């Protein structure tokens, strides 16, 4: 059974998912460079004050975009934790 409207919605969702993955890939390329820079400069893998600023900034953006700020914080926290894990791994290699 085919539903043209549902298919159109799903195509849009697929396009958005593709964009999200590409954006995350670009973000992780940059954060990987940051991790190498921090390791060479002797900086810690985590920056709690920067993380707090980013979370607050993105919570505000989420509210203005009518997205649940708690969801956006959980999503960002997951990304930040993964970035820190990568930075720690890079630091161990230097």
Description:
It holds the Pfam family CM_2. Its EC number is 5.4.99.5. Residues 1-91 form the Chorismate mutase domain. GO terms for molecular function: chorismate mutase activity. Keywords: Isomerase. The protein has 94 residues and is mostly helical. The chain has one domain (4-93): Chorismate mutase (Chorismate Mutase Domain, subunit A). Helix content is 85%, strand content 0%. It has three helices and no strands. It has helices spanning 4-41, 48-64, 69-93. It is elongated. The N and C termini lie far apart (57 Å).
Short description, anyone?
This protein is mainly alpha-helical and 94 residues long. The protein has 3 helices and no strands. The protein has a single domain, classed as Chorismate mutase (Chorismate Mutase Domain, subunit A), CATH 1.20.59.
List keywords for this structure.
single chain; mainly alpha; 85% helix; elongated; 94 residues; 3 helices; Chorismate Mutase Domain, subunit A
DSSP summary: helix tally = 3
Describe the biggest sheet? none
CATH architecture: Up-down Bundle
CATH class call: Mainly Alpha
Termini separation comes to 57 Å
Poorly predicted tracts of residues: none
Percentage beta strand: under 5%
Helical coverage, percent range: over 70%
Radius of gyration computed on alpha carbons? 17 Å
Enzyme class: isomerase
Keywords: Isomerase
Protein name: chorismate mutase
GO molecular function, one term: chorismate mutase activity
């Amino acid at each position: 059974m085919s539903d043209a409207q549902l298919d159109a919605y799903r195509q849009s969702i697929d396009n958005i998912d593709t964009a999200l993955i590409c954006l995350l890939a670009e973000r992780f390329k940059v954060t990987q460079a940051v991790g190498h820079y921090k390791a060479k400069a002797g900086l810690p893998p985590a920056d709690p004050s920067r993380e707090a600023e980013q979370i607050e900034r993105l919570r505000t953006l989420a509210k203005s975009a009518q997205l649940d700020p708690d969801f956006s914080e959980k999503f960002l926290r997951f990304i930040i934790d993964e970035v820190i894990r990568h930075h720690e791994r890079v630091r161990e290699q230097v």
